[in-house]
Amino acid sequence: MRVIKNPAWVYYITDKDPDFDENKVGKWMYFFADRSFVEGVCKAAIKEGIVEECKHSNASEGVSCFYLNDDDLEGHRRVIEFFIKNDLIRKTKKGKLYNISFKHDTQTLTGEYGDDYHSDIKLEEFVNLETGE
Question: Which helix (H) or strand (E) holds 62?
Answer without folding.
Answer: strand 62-69
